[in-house]
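We read letters as residues; the integers encode the fold. Take this protein.
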Amino acid sequence: MKTRSGVAYALACLAVPACGATGDAPSRAERATSAATSLEAPPLPSIGEAGPSNEPEAERCGLPGGLAALPGYSVRVWATGTADFSHPDSLERDANDIWVGYQNVTAKDGTDGKSSTVVEYNMHGRVERTFAVPGHCDGLRIDPATHIVWATSNEDGNPGLVSIDPATGVETQYTFAPTAHGGGFDDMGFVNGKMFIAASNPTLDASGANVFPAIDAVSFQGTNVVLTPALLGNATAIDVTTGLPVTLNLVDPDSITITPSGDLMLVNQAGSELVFVSQAGLTSQTVTRLPVATQLDDTVWATAPEGELLVADGKTNTIYAVRTKFVPGTVYTETPDDSSIASMVGTVNLKTGVVYPQIIGFGKATGLLFVPDRQ
């Protein structure tokens, strides 16, 4: 198993005895000391490390679905798919509603002619409305200015884009011209008054490089999508860990997050890096990149001490709600099921790129969303 020492160390700390186990099992501190000695890794960050939980043992250990977590976390089932919609992926929130893109069983290039389902829930996980979206829905975002819901389909090829007006329930389909990079489109983000979209599954040249746009700015002529390159796959960036310029190779543009400071963050999934675009789409745009310990998927910030982290598990057809004493500014991430550390939720250090597993045992961690409690 290919892991960086920080990831392996954190996994060692999660290898705890079964709930209620007694006897000569090593203490948590002893396991951590042993792992740190053998792997020479830094200690875990403060989140999840404040000491023994005050929750009753049955409550701490009653994690659903065979999950294992560091002390201090509780996990419950928030919603599940049905016979009509399955395989949850993207998660988004607008006001008092949570929107989920269910991929159902659909081809990633849309060639099977099937549809995905976008589901609108209330904050308690109760279904309010459902919408059929042609193809394999992999991106779902809401424009904060208009509250229009946008869903992308077919990230591997033959891309589609649909808008949903929550006020009227009207869906509108948009058309792409043949893509410059040869693939489809994945996630979206809204910043500086513009929509940006990740150009996924790019065609690589003979050297394995992506010379095409990895992020495009989106505008429209009627129902036709107009794309303007915002970041090339081989753009120059500053490496966070060294401070030196590097040439990017964005072989797998995937998830997009808008950071609390307003930067656009792209997950280069197979490239195992996070790419930050400051002042995206403006003449003052700058780019930095952070190598990370393994492949990542959705990545979000905890913005309040009280709230829930919603985690979609595409394999078990379940959306989980995770609670802990969140530290605002902590960055949570998840890994895909083909990662070296598969289907976990962890935290990532944005200075070093080290990923610390917090919860393991998901079937296929896909979507991730932080929802602060109401004030």
Q: What stands out?
A: The longest strand covers residues 213-221. The helical segments are 5-14, 28-39, 57-61. The radius of gyration is 20 Å. The chain has two domains: 5-69, 74-372.
